[in-house]
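User: Let's play a game. I give you a shape written as tokens, and you guess the letters that built it. Ready? Here's round one.
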């Protein structure tokens, strides 16, 4: 038996023992009858209180009949004559059972070799608890259904568990990757556990040859990736069942005294949480079984150390008790109250007043003396602390408008970050940029992080700092760098990000010295990941976000060379019904939209243009503006990479500008499809560009399609010529004379120069 199976079985044994002991100790106190006279009140270690019973005349109705099977050692209890084993019965209106697990098992060729479809049918007055239990599916590419009946109506619910590899799974998470959970409706009486494979099981047979479904107590199960292969000999799991008397309300039940179940004079009737039927309980100060005439009896709180809260003397009363103080004392006598206080004489009170006055005088004198001594020292300290405090107050005031921002991240102290970065040692620097310096650090828990420290302190810098915190606090995407926290108590703002080890996409394209094989497949995957991240910002967040500084330098690469979008300092959130932002031009020349350069209106299509520039970099492996230009190439270089790319597209000679590292790979159709997509993104008319969602879908289709050219149907007029003439006039392109001049003005500026006005 595997380790996980042993854990499950041990857990069930512990639950049974604890539940049984609690049932016998807390549900009804010792020496109080729990069953009718001459009726058995136990089955093995299980207490069986009335209205439940094991023989005719011992239970209230057949719904509460319990079969005690003494062929087991110790004997086990079952619901009526069914296979549903009962492990605990509580007078609070709940019982626990052990429920079977549904399973489908497949052979290595995808053929189903075994199947089990258990079903649950509860007697009248018993329903499945809809809050404590969850319907759970374990497996890959499997649907789970649970149809049944809830009082006078039918219901169906279920969920889907998907996975292609064991590494996809998340330990402890039942959100759809290998495991899913869903609720059931109120007052469910029956349930059928069903499984249905979505697709052939051969692809996952190596680690998931069986799929499982069960309706069980949520707290009794925690998902592990080992469950896919090692649920093994675990046949049952605990399930919580609610029970009630009939299906009447308390008022309706009281109308018929002969059938009214709350027999004790010291009991009360109440409505269960699930709204079905009614239950009985003893009044406060009484304990026992409220379903007997004399079932609820007075509890002597004074004899119970858990109930006796008196300091000195406890006096029991019928249904209550009170605490008494000895002579010469007053108060309520309770440990959780005033207790018993000694009555003082007039002289004692006068002496106590004098002592209190003298003590107050001494405290005031010492305080004044300390104040005079510390005043000078504090004045010097405050001169150094004022700047830190004012910046901190400004940051808190800015963030006060976003109450939920700090709930999503940790607020670090400056001391923690100094320790993590070795006091911002120069050897820890990962990179420098226009916004500041990024340091590598290690937190006390061993996590490696990147700490961003701003270069200067001014109002604009603080605005960008607050904006980046506000933007990243809304984002949770695997292709967007995660902001772990910030520091508010330093003069210079500090941001703490997850550490991304493999630098930027710009370095990988242009300055790579690692020898990493930057293949076409990797480039296409990175492009798709960034497109999906931008689509998430534009469409999936509660408020759309425009990045505004999309460039290869702001795309980081993790240990598996997966793309992470970063640097949201100038990003902006926009209202859902807002089509653009009107701001002064800000961004990086060569990447931002020429239309935005002309009008000052930044739209979602402006991010699309910038993404198109990144696609061209991935295709060509060239910089936007080269620093080394030969005399023959001077004219072409002055036009910039984007203009040269569009001209080669016009002349049907794409291969002349492609990166030699990818030309050798036999994926010409994919090169042409991505080039055509880039051309559409770079259209000077923003309305004619695709949305970033369309771009992301196109890239995914190119990656998976056997005929990439069908994705970009306009490619039929392009060729893959190795030689061509690109001396065509600029007007030959589909842009106007004015548009060509604008594009030239944008591209001939330095691609690394960032405007600082907003």
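Assistant: Ready! My guess for every position:
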């Amino acid at each position: 038996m595997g380790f996980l199976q042993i854990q499950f079985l041990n857990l069930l044994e512990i639950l049974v023992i604890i539940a049984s002991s609690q049932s016998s100790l807390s549900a009804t106190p010792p020496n109080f009858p729990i069953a009718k006279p001459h009726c058995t009140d136990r089955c093995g270690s299980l207490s069986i209180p009335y209205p439940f019973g094991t023989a005719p005349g011992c239970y209230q109705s057949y719904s509460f009949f319990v079969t005690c099977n003494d062929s087991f050692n110790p004997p086990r209890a079952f619901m009526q004559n069914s296979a549903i084993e009962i492990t605990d019965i509580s007078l609070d209106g709940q019982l626990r059972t052990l429920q079977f697990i549904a399973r489908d098992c497949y052979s290595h060729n995808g053929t189903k070799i075994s199947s089990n479809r258990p079903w649950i049918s509860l007697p009248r007055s018993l329903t499945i608890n809809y809050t404590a239990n969850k319907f759970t599916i374990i497996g890959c590419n499997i649907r789970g259904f649970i149809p049944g009946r809830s009082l006078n109506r039918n219901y169906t619910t279920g969920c889907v568990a998907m996975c292609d590899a064991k590494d996809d799974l998340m330990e402890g998470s039942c959100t759809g990757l290998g495991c899913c959970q869903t609720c059931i409706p109120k007052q469910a009486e029956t349930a059928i556990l069903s499984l249905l494979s979505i697709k052939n099981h051969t692809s996952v047979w190596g680690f998931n040859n069986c799929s499982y479904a069960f309706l069980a107590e949520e707290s009794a199960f925690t998902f592990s990736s080992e469950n896919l292969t090692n649920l093994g000999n675990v046949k049952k799991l605990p399930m919580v069942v609610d029970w009630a008397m009939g299906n009447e309300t308390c008022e309706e039940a009281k109308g018929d005294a002969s059938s009214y179940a709350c027999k004790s004079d010291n009991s009360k009737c109440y409505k269960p949480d699930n709204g079905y039927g009614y239950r009985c309980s003893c009044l406060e100060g009484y304990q026992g079984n409220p379903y007997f005439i004399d079932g609820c009896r007075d509890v002597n709180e004074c004899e119970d150390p858990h109930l006796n809260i008196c300091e000195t003397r406890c006096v029991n009363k019928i249904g209550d008790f009170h605490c008494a103080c000895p002579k010469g004392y007053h108060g309520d006598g309770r440990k959780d109250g005033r207790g018993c206080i000694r009555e003082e004489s007039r002289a004692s009170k006068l002496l106590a007043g004098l002592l209190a006055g003298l003590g107050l005088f001494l405290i005031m004198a010492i305080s004044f003396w300390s104040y005079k001594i510390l005043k000078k020292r504090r004045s010097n300290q405050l001169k150094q602390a004022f700047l830190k405090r004012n910046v901190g107050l400004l940051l808190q005031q800015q963030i006060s408008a976003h109450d939920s921002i700090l709930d999503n991240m940790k607020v670090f102290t400056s001391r923690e970050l100094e320790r993590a970065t070795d006091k911002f040692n120069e050897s820890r620097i990962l990179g420098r940029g226009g916004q500041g310096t990024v340091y590598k650090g290690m937190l006390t828990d061993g996590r490696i992080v990147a700490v961003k420290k701003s270069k200067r302190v001014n109002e604009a810098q603080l605005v960008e700092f607050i904006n980046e915190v506000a933007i990243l606090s809304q984002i949770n995407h695997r292709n967007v760098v995660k902001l772990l926290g910030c520091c508010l108590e330093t003069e210079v703002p500090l941001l703490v990000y997850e550490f991304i080890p493999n630098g930027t996409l710009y370095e990988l394209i242009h300055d790579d010295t690692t020898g990493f094989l930057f293949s076409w497949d990797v480039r296409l995957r990175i492009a798709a990941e960034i497109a999906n991240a931008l689509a998430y910002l534009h469409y999936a967040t509660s408020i759309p976000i425009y990045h505004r500084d999309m460039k290869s330098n702001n795309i980081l690469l993790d240990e598996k060379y997966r793309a992470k979008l970063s640097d949201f300092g100038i990003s902006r959130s926009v209202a859902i019904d807002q089509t653009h932002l009107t701001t002064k031009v800000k961004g990086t020349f060569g990447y931002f939209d020429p239309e935005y350069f002309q009008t000052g209106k930044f739209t979602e299509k402006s991010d699309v243009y910038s993404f198109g520039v990144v696609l061209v970099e991935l295709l060509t492996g060239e910089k936007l503006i080269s620093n080394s230009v030969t005399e023959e190439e001077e004219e072409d270089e002055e036009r910039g990479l984007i203009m040269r790319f569009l001209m080669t597209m016009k002349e049907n000679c794409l291969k002349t500008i492609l990166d030699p590292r990818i030309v050798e790979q036999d994926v010409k159709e994919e090169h042409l499809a991505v080039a055509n997509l880039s051309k559409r993104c770079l259209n000077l008319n923003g309305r004619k560009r695709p949305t970033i969602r369309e771009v992301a879908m196109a890239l995914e289709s190119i990656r998976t399609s056997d005929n990439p050219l069908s994705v970009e149907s306009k490619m039929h007029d392009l060729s893959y010529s190795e030689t061509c003439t690109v001396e065509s006039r600029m007007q030959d392109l589909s842009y106007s004379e004015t548009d060509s001049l604008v594009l030239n003005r944008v591209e001939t500026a330095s691609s690394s120069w960032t405007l600082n006005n907003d």
